[in-house]
Amino acid sequence: MDINEFLDTVIFGVSVRWIVGFLIKGILIFIFVKILTTIIKYLFNRSQRKQGRIVLEETKLGFIRQIIIAIIYIIGITGFLSLIPGMEKVSNSILASAGIVAMAVGLASQEALSNIIGGFFIIFSSPFKVGDFIKIDDTITGNVVEITLRHTILRNLENRMILIPNNKINSSTIINSSYGDTSTCSFIDVAVSYTTDLNKAFEVMRDEIMKNPLVIDHRTEAEREKNIPEVVIRVTSLDNSSITLRAWAWASTSWNAYVLKCEALKAVKERFDAENIEIPYPYFNQIIQQAKPS
Q: Residue 116: pLDDT above 60?
């Protein structure tokens, strides 16, 4: 049997010649898609920096790159399906006879489309970008790692990746600690007893907080002229068994402000102990009555 006879052999109603041609064309389409996506990634990575300056912001660059690569994959899949005779008719008949499936696909497409449009709003309105530290609806906090076609990916303080749909972010309240002036005010609250000399407590708190190297001077020129201290301390509430003192201390970033608060609370507690300034806590008296003998 020569090569032509072998290629003309029919297996399950299909000639070997058609199967070989189908496999060759499929492999060529796969190689074409793979090479094209590799070239696109290389060109985008190369164009990100040119002559020592940033040509396009990383956030926009990554988003546009994903769109182009997705289009290439769609073209490749379409080309592969076109190799199968009657595939279009079969798919049309399946969709026409399965109304429930078509409805589910339609709803899923609407959700996906809303996320893609939401991604465009995020990219071009720029409420945040890759690398920013943000908080969403006062519940989710983390650094922006990537903005994809459907999700925005955050890395939280526990190094966990959080994927949030883009359309949800567009309807959420976002606190961006990296937007504009990154300096952050830390509220340091400490409770003292009603017998405490408040002026002394103010001095002790201010002295301990000012020792922290993370504290920055955020006063304006007018505030400096009025001799307003770098760390302002005020009474914020009179509670049932304590007086709450709050110190306003500034740090260069939101993370530094958090660290400053933790270290300041420890330092103030230790200094209060040394100065015999009481930090009250609830006391409970338990009264046990003995039963009268019968």
A: yes
